[in-house]
Specification:
By secondary structure, this protein is an all-alpha fold. The protein has a single domain, classed as Tetracycline Repressor, domain 2. Helix content is 78%, strand content 0%. The protein has six helices and no strands. α1 crosses α2. 15% of the residues are buried. Keywords: DNA-binding. GO terms for molecular function: DNA-binding transcription factor activity; transcription cis-regulatory region binding.
Length: 128
């Protein structure tokens, strides 16, 4: 089996970071946790992701955004109308971002986590 590419290793690290952020919360996740989840050494994690943990905190939602934009482009290439594809994609992205924020913020401030959907999500869905 050929050795994994740098891109494949980086994706593996981001997958592990996403898993650890969901399991432990962002504040409690260490590079060691991510390395263990990825089956790699800490040194490999630092080589694979130059900014370490801080870069991974950004890499997880950025990957979600990239996937959203790729999906939106695919929808736009399909037979659907442009407005329908944009609305459907935006709702899907909003749901994923909110779910990620809630999961990744777990363990920090339970009252704040409960307040977030009430303050921002419900009004955004129900409108003025």
């Amino acid at each position: 089996m050929p050795p994994p590419t740098a891109d494949a290793t980086r994706e593996r690290i981001i997958d592990a970071a996403e898993e650890c952020f969901a399991r432990f919360g962002v504040a409690r996740t260490t590079v060691g946790d991510i390395a263990t989840a990825a089956g790699l050494s800490r040194a490999t994690v630092y080589r694979g992701v130059a900014g370490g943990r801080d870069e991974l905190i950004l890499a997880v939602p950025l990957r979600t955004l990239r996937r959203f934009l790729d999906g939106l482009a695919e929808r736009l290439r399909g037979l659907r109308s442009v407005p329908e594809a944009i609305v459907e994609g935006a709702v899907e992205l909003l749901f994923r971002v909110i779910a990620s924020l809630i999961v990744m913020d777990r363990g920090r401030d339970d009252a704040g986590t409960r307040r977030f959907p009430r303050t921002y999500v419900v009004p955004a869905i129900t409108g003025p």
